[in-house]
Every structure is written in structure tokens, then in C-alpha cells.
Design goal:
It is built from eight helices and five strands. The strands form two sheets. It has a three-stranded parallel sheet with strand order 1-2-3. It has a two-stranded antiparallel sheet with strand order 4-5.
């Protein structure tokens, strides 16, 4: 699989027809300064391109760059959580574009919800817990932009259901 890196906020890379996935890179500078405007512009260009909407269905992955020396997981870093929340407020198309991988969805959902940090089973380890009702409300809110995008794309009910079910499969894996 060809998967270019896309440093968000720097304009869209050339995405040829052979590209099956793209890894969105959120830089530490953009994250710390909460500069989501350029990233939203980049992602809207993706959303508005008919070929890329189809080609990159379930083809987006993401990473945070520049946090290598921070021992915390992304969901424990307040700046990363806030960045994803701000980005999501302007670009809520995750159900269509995000790769159906439990680890990606886990990070996104834990960052977008008001999770509670609690001590883990091992000394010095922390974990996050989330109210399932909050996850349900978040996912219900994501359905509106998903349906609007699918209306614009002219997808059949079967195509819509397949996209939704693949995303939900990854989300259910997170919740189990």
C-alpha cells in the first residue's frame, strides 16, 4: 500500500490514483498553538474532491509528531486532546475517512470525549475511562456530516451501510 505522509497545514500533497491511504501528521508546533485553521483547509480540500472522497474512504491515519520525548500516550497530552477537539469541531468526517483500526479510533474517541483518568492495575500506569453514553452521543453527532457527505457523493444505501459498519467494527473493538 502506498501511504504518503501529509503534514497538515502545509497544503495537500499530490495524491495519485494508486494511493490507498494517507497518514495525517499533526506537528507539535501546530498542536501546541492550536492552529487548526490550515489543517481544516487541507482536509476540506480532501472532502471536496470527488475522486479523493471515494479513493480515501477509510484511508486516513494520524500521528502526532514532535512528542517523542514525552512518555505519555497521546490521549494523556492535553494539547493533543484540545487540538483534535478543535479540528473535529470544524471537520467531523471521521466515520467516512478514518481507517477502521481500533488503535486509531481509540485515540480519537478518548481525545474527543471527557474521559476520566484513573490509576491502572500496574503501579505508575494510568488509564482513561469514558462514559459509554458520551461515546454514543459523539457518534450520533458524527452521523449528520457522514450522511450529508454520502448524499453529496450519491452513495447507495448498501455503500453507506458498508462504510458505517466498517467504522463501527473498529469502534466496537475499542469498546469491548
Amino acid at each position: 500500500m502506498t501511504m504518503p505522509l501529509w503534514p497538515l497545514g502545509s497544503g495537500a500533497p499530490a495524491i495519485g490514483p494508486d494511493v490507498e491511504g494517507v497518514c495525517l501528521v499533526f506537528s507539535r508546533e501546530e498542536t501546541e498553538r492550536l492552529r487548526v485553521g490550515r489543517s481544516v483547509d487541507d482536509l476540506m480540500a480532501l472532502t471536496e474532491d470527488p475522486r479523493l472522497r471515494r479513493q480515501l474512504t477509510h484511508g486516513l491515519y494520524f500521528v502526532f509528531d514532535g512528542w517523542d520525548n514525552d512518555p505519555r500516550e497521546v490521549m494523556f497530552i492535553p494539547e493533543c486532546r484540545q487540538y483534535l477537539r478543535q479540528l473535529h469541531a470544524h471537520w467531523p468526517y471521521w466515520l467516512h475517512f478514518m481507517a477502521p483500526m481500533a488503535d486509531q479510533w481509540s485515540v480519537l474517541l478518548l481525545c474527543l470525549t471527557d474521559s476520566v483518568q484513573v490509576a491502572g492495575a500496574e503501579a505508575g500506569k494510568m488509564k482513561l475511562t469514558v462514559n459509554p453514553g458520551e461515546i454514543r452521543r459523539l457518534l450520533e453527532a458524527m452521523l449528520v456530516p457522514l450522511n450529508l457527505l454520502h448524499d453529496e457523493m450519491g452513495l447507495s444505501e448498501l455503500q453507506r451501510r458498508e462504510i458505517f459498519e466498517r467504522s463501527m467494527g473498529a469502534i466496537e473493538a475499542v469498546m469491548s
